[in-house]
Structure to design on (246 residues):
């Protein structure tokens, strides 16, 4: 492990340039390779059009909402995302502590401790015992009935699927189902917001741009804003309606 980096800023840059919060001096890493945006309890990773790409748990990504113990690969380096629960006695709604652990690439000379030559002869197989003769099933025996479906745990919210419908602009009339945990809306460089899907419902949060999104004619602040059925959102010059699908 090289170091730990607390995610105590909304935007953490990763790349080869010294201006990045997480600087990785490696030719396989772009100058501004990726960034991590943290909004309340949600953090998501975005590849910034890097030359060699960004992997999460071995899969290439463009945008990815981070989960505890996700492993990010940038060049030959690995970063592990860790979301530690708050210590006992803290308020139940307090944010988790988020940390990026930067690990160095493995040394080329390192070899597994228990490695064996490929051509090593395998030990002779022991003769296996003949399988036991299956017992006949009585003619009147019936298969056991499947167990009833488990009831939802106490306090679990059965969340309905939601969507947004574009009201103005060239895409007016189109609908977008909010099936992901995090859906990005807007125009990069102008105004961007995200709608997060949580057990308590759907929330909209400002991510990028000088102006904040407007919900029902009122500009939201930096905090996550809960969305209600038929709320009208104004974002990057486009109006859209949030609604719960029946």
């Amino acid at each position: 492990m090289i170091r730990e980096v607390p995610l105590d800023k909304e935007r953490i840059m990763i790349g080869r340039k010294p201006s990045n919060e997480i600087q990785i001096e490696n030719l396989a890493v772009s100058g501004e390779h990726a960034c991590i945006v943290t909004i309340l309890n949600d953090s998501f990773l975005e590849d910034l059009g890097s030359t060699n790409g960004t992997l999460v748990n071995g899969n290439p990504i463009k945008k990815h909402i981070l989960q505890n113990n996700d492993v990010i690969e940038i060049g030959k380096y690995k970063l592990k995302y860790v979301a530690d629960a708050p210590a006992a006695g803290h308020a139940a709604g307090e944010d988790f502590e988020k940390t990026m652990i930067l690990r160095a690439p493995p040394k080329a000379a390192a070899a597994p401790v228990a490695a064996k030559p490929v051509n090593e002869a395998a030990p002779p197989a022991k003769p296996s015992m003949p399988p036991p003769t299956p017992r006949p099933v009585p003619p009147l025996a019936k298969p056991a009935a499947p167990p009833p479906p488990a009831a939802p745990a106490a306090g679990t919210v059965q969340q309905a699927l939601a969507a947004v419908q574009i009201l103005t602009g060239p895409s007016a009339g189109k609908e977008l189902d909010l099936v992901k945990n995090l859906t990005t809306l807007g125009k990069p460089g102008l105004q961007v917001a995200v709608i997060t899907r949580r057990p308590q419902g759907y929330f909209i949060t400002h991510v990028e741009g000088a102006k904040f999104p407007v919900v029902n004619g009122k500009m939201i602040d930096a905090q996550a804003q809960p969305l209600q059925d038929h709320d009208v959102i104004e974002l990057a010059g486009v109006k859209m309606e949030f609604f719960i699908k029946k």
Remarks:
- The radius of gyration is 26 Å.
- Confidence is low (pLDDT under 50) at residues 85-97, 107-122, 152-157.
- The chain is about 0% helix and 40% strand.
- Residues 136 and 142 are 13 Å apart (CA to CA).
